[in-house]
Amino acid sequence: DDYYPIYWATVELTPCRDCPINERLAVSLHSSEVITEYVETNAILKLHGPASEKVFESLLNSVTYMNSAVEPQRPLKRDIIVTVGDGRFNVSAFVEIIIQNVNDLPTVKFNGGDTWNVDFTEGYGPVPVASAIEVADQDVEDILIVSMAITNGANGEFLQFTSDLRDLTLSYGFNGLSLVIGGVNATPAVCSRALKSLSFDSLNSNPGDMVAFPRIIKFVANDGHANGKPAYTKVSVTTVNDR
């Protein structure tokens, strides 16, 4: 009713768990008749008239909600309260927002890259193969399973941990060529710390084929939903002449 114009309107987000950095309201349309004010700390959008119902309706229909948080604060339900006043009466309406979480795949990196190179000398004992490894997952509540395997290994070659894995469970694959760590305490930080102590060794007295074919160790993290992108360590071998 243009005879009784709308004097003001507010759009309030409640609760605003990720404000003011990641969560906010915005209005995409503008009118010369209405002044727009936004209170970031509380996510309250204020529209100051007076203007006609049609003008306010257009502006309110252009209001958008945004949440750029990698992991939105729980619970994931938000309410938006829209209140309009004409100087005589106020009326409110409510909008419910349910944030749908998207699974972020875990990552395995070596100093930010996907590959790592180490040298192994025959007869000189095990060498660390993941000293620069970092396992991460943006979904902070995820518990991980990390598998590692010598993809082109042979008998007499194996992987082993040199530190105590009291916070993790450890499973062995065929002939020690593969290992899996996990358990209820397998957070990314715990897994990263454990993997830094992983080493490669070979008991072969004649590892000649390892010179032509360096061993490749594959690392894969799983968050209970899907595997992340693998990372690899390349083990280059130096043989020693046996007298």
Structure report:
With 243 residues, this protein is mainly beta. It has a six-stranded mixed β-sheet with strand order 9-18-17-12-15-14, with no helix packed on it. Strands 3-4-1-6-7 form a five-stranded antiparallel β-sheet, covered by helices on one side. A three-stranded antiparallel β-sheet has the order 10-16-13, with no helix packed on it. The radius of gyration is 29 Å and the shape is rod-shaped. The model has no long low-confidence stretch (mean pLDDT 91).
Radius of gyration: 29 Å
Number of helices: 3
Give the amount of beta strand, in percent.
Answer: 35-45%
Summing up helix and strand content along with how strands pair, one would put the structural category as mainly beta
Query: Based on the structure, what is the oligomeric state of the protein chains?
Result: single chain
Q: Can you list the strand order of the major beta sheet?
A: 9-18-17-12-15-14
Instruction: Specify the overall morphology.
Output: rod-shaped
Order of helices and strands: EEEEHEEEEEEEEEEEHEHEE
- Residue stretches low in confidence (pLDDT < 50, at least 5 long) are none
Fraction of residues in helix: under 10%
Largest sheet: 6 strands, mixed
- Distance between the ends: 103 Å
Mean of the pLDDT scores? 91
Number of strands: 18
